[in-house]
Write a structure and sequence with these properties.
This protein is an alpha/beta fold and 507 residues long. It is 32% helix and 21% strand. The two termini are 35 Å apart.
Amino acid sequence: MTTENQILVIFGASGDLTKRKLLPALYELFEQKMLPEKFAILGVSRTKYTDYQFRDKMHSSIIDYGKHGIDEVSRIKKFVQNVYYQPIDTNSPEAYAEVKNRLKTLTDELGIKSNFIYYLSTPPSLYGTIPQYLAEHGLNKQNDGWKRLIVEKPFGYDLESALELNKTLLSDWEEDQIYRIDHYLGKETVQNLLVTRFSNGIFEPLWNRNYVHHVEVTGAESIGVENRGGYYEGSGALRDMIQNHLLQVVSLIAMEPPSSIDSMAIRNETLKVFQSLRRIKEDEVKKVTIRGQYTSSKINGEKVLGYREEKGVDPDSRTETYAAIKFYIDNWRWGGVPFYVRTGKRLPTRVSEVVIHFKPTPHYLFSQKEVCESCNQLVLRIHPDEGILIKFGMKVPGAGFKVKNVNMDFHYSDLSNIRLPSAYERLLLDCMQGDATLFARGDAVIEAWKFLAPVQNVWEHDPAMPVYGYPAGTWGPENADELIQEKEMTWRYPCKNLTGDGLYCEL
C-alpha cells in the first residue's frame, strides 16, 4: 500500500506521549524507509518553543526512549529536520488560524496537497474542543487533500460522555476521518489472532461452543499507579483497561470470519460481537464481577505501598486497581460459553494473554486429576513474550499410562531475522495509509460502554458493593477464582505470587 505525501500535526506535542512513543515510532518508520518522500511533523502545544528548540528535545527523546546509540546521531539529526513547532493556546479558537497559516507555508514549501493527520495527544477534555476549532477554520475540509483525526483513549468516561463526544465529533467530521487509537490493537500478536483463526484448518473448526469450555483474557501489570494516582482516581481498572483494550481483544477472539480482510468487513464483525454481549442486570453485578485494591506488602524483602498510600490517592478511595468480570456472548457460535476478563496493578508479573480452554474429553481413560486441570489450553501471549503456547497431555516414558502436561511453544523472538514493529509504528503507518482496520469505530465504542454501564453504576453508587483488598505482588483478591464456574477450575496463573517463595514464570 502506498503512503501519500502528508503532514502529521501532533497536538500536545510537549507531553510525555510524544517524546516517549510517537517521535521514536516515527523515527523507526523513517529508518525502515516507510515514510513518504515528502513528510513533515508539526508539533502544536502551549509551551513556547522555536523549531530548533523542539528539534533538540525530540532528538534527545529519540535517543533516550528509542534506545539508539551514538552511531545513529547523524541519522536522527537528518530525521528531525522534518520536525516543526507552532505554540498556541489550544483553548482559543482564534489561535487555530496560526496552525492553518503554518500548514499552508509547509505545504507550499514541500509542494504537496493538504493531506493532514491531526493527532490528539492531549488531555481528554480537549478531544471535543480541538476538532471543533479545526473545523471552524476549515481544517477538516477534504477539497484539497484528505484530513484524518487520531483520538487517544479514553473515548469518554461512561456511556453518556462517550455519546456526547461522538456527537460532537460527527457534527464536523465524517466517521471515516476519525481514527480512535488503541495501542493494544497494534501489537503483533493481537493482529495474529485473526491469522491464527482464519488461515488454519486446525483451529477454526474448534473455535465454538462445541469444543471451547471457556475463554480467559488477562491484562496484568506488576507496577502500581506510580506517580499517576491523581489520574487513576478518576479512571480505575474497568475504564483504564477493560472497556477499551481487553474488550477489543475479546471482539477479535469471538468475531465471525469477515467477508474480506479490509477495515469495513472486519469492523462490521467486531461490532456484531459487542451487540451480542449479554447485558448484565444491576442486581447481577455482585455475582459476575469482582473489584479489588492492592494493599501494602513486602516484595522480595522490600515494603511496597498500598494504593491508598500512593501520592494523589484519597485515603478512603474505592477506586479499583483490580477488576474481573464474567459474561456471555449470545450468538450461535458462543452460546453458553463463559468469557472471563481480568486486569490489575501490582500483580506478580506483567503479562497480557488470551487462554482458550477446550472442553475435557467425555470419558477419562487416564483419570489422574492433574491431567484435566490445565490440559488442552491454547495460550496466545500478547505481551511481553509474544507467541503461542499449546498445552496438552502426553504419556510419561516407562511402564503404565502415567500422563503429564507438556507444552508446544512458539516465540516470536525465535524469528531472529524478523523485526517486530512497535504498536505505535504499526498504527501510525496504518493511519497514514488510510487503513482503519485496527482502529475502533464509534458504534463499537458506544456498544462497549452500554455493556459496562450497569457495572459502572453499581460500582460507583452502591456502597454495599465490596472492594476487596489484595496484597501487592499477588494475583488479586482471594475470591477471584469464585467467578470460574467449576469449583476445581481457576484462572491461569503463569507466575507464582511474589510474596511467596520467589518468582517462577511459565510464560
